[in-house]
Amino acid sequence: MSAQTTETARGAVLEARDVAVHFGGVKAVDGLTIRLTEGRIFGIMGPNGSGKSTLLGAITRLTPLTRGTLVFDGAEFHDAPPSQVARMRIARTFQTVRLLPHLTVRQNIQLGADARQDAGSALPWARRPRRTDTSEAVDTAIRRTGLDDVADLRPQELSYGTQRRVEIARALAMDPRLLLLDEPTAGMNQKERAEISRLLRELRAEGLTQLLVEHDVQMMVDTCDHVFAMNFGVLIAEGPPAEVVRDPRVQEAYLGKKWRDHA
Ligand SMILES: Nc1ncnc2c1ncn2[C@@H]1O[C@H](COP(=O)(O)OP(=O)(O)OP(=O)(O)O)[C@@H](O)[C@H]1O
Predict the structure, then answer these.
(1) HSE of 257 in the Cβ direction (CA atoms, 13 Å)?
(2) C-beta separation of 153 from 65 below 8 A
(3) CA torsion angle 133 143 166 73 (round to 10)
(4) CB of 193 closer than 6 A to ligand 1?
(5) Interior CA angle at 197 toward 95 and 54, to 5°?
(6) Entry's CDD domains (predicted)?
(7) Residue nearest to atom 25 of ligand 1 (CA)
(8) DSSP structure string for 166-202
(9) What does each C-alpha distance from 17 to 29, 41, 85, 111 come to in angstroms?
(10) Cα–Cα distance between 95 and 213 in angstroms, integer?
(11) Which of 19, 106, 140, 213 has the fewest C-beta atoms under 10 angstroms from its C-beta?
């Protein structure tokens, strides 16, 4: 990996410059430039297939870039392996629940803390360093997400909304510098969505930078400081959410008449 520092990245936690991810002829992301500054909540909105999840995959290095530059804390990392991303403390939740059913809530969250430790060795074949005690990080993540009462239950004993909170707790157990959330409120009712929005805003107050992929426009407006709107892999608008949802290009691409009338 190149550890070149760049002047233009100063003040940004993450920059993606002219990032493209093509799958054969499908240009899932096609020349996207975004800048995430410290301690703010950024949103990505866009219709199905516009490239939102692919962008998160590119940032976590699970999906190879076709071209472009990724910079985290001033260091380029677009050539780094995914294990390096965990070491940089970039954590992610997925679009669908990915909890291990035979483990308790606490054990699932423990996996997040372990992921960071496992990333500690630059040589995967080398003997692992002795583990430090991560129980405090796990306890903090459980408390932070209000899961104390269900910590010893298994995922199938929980509501869907609570399972999604466990996923956020697992990501928090990594003690992230940047948290990527892929539709964390999908399938939730209004009350559960409001709870997640409140949690994300509390995490922001503690300084955590977040990038949230979300279809729920109200959730975006209530939660995000700055929103990027994508369509066909390119950025069509960005700015404060209340402005972006009124942008004619965004309304045309994504929101439809209903929101236009509402707005
Ligand atoms: N591994 C892959 N191989 C081929 N095409 C892919 C792959 N992953 C994504 N795509 C395509 O890339 C485009 C962008 O998909 P992506 O999942 O990033 O969109 P999205 O905005 O996250 O959509 P959604 O809101 O439905 O989750 C789509 O056309 C999709 O079919």
Answers:
(1) 0
(2) no
(3) -70
(4) no
(5) 25
(6) ABC_Mj1267_LivG_branched
(7) 48
(8) HHHHHHHTT--SEEEEESTTTT--HHHHHHHHHHHHH
(9) 12, 19, 17, 32
(10) 9
(11) 140
What is the per-residue pLDDT across 180-189, written as a single tens digit (0 to 9) for each?
999 999 888 8
Give ipTM to 2 decimals: 0.96
- Condensed to tens digits (0 to 9), the pLDDT of residues 68-78 reads 999 999 999 99
62 lines ligand 1 (CB under 6 A): no
| pLDDT tens per residue across span 133-182 | 778 889 999 999 999 999 999 999 999 889 999 999 999 999 999 999 99
Distances from the Cα of 41 to the Cα of 122, 156, 180, 192, angstroms: 31, 30, 10, 19
Widest pairwise Cα distance in the chain: 61
- Provide the H-helix boundaries in 66-130: 82-87, 105-118
Residue 106, classed as helix, strand or coil, is: helix
Q: Which residue's CA is minimally distant from atom 2 of ligand 1?
A: 23
Q: Which tokens in the block code for residue 166? A: 């466990």
Ligand 1 pocket check for 54: Cβ under 6 Å: yes
Contact yes or no for 199/184 (Cβ under 8 A): no
d(CA 149, CA 142): 9
Q: Write out the two tokens for 119.
A: 């990333």
Predicted model pTM: 0.87
Q: How far is the CA of 30 from the centre of ligand 1 (A)?
A: 12
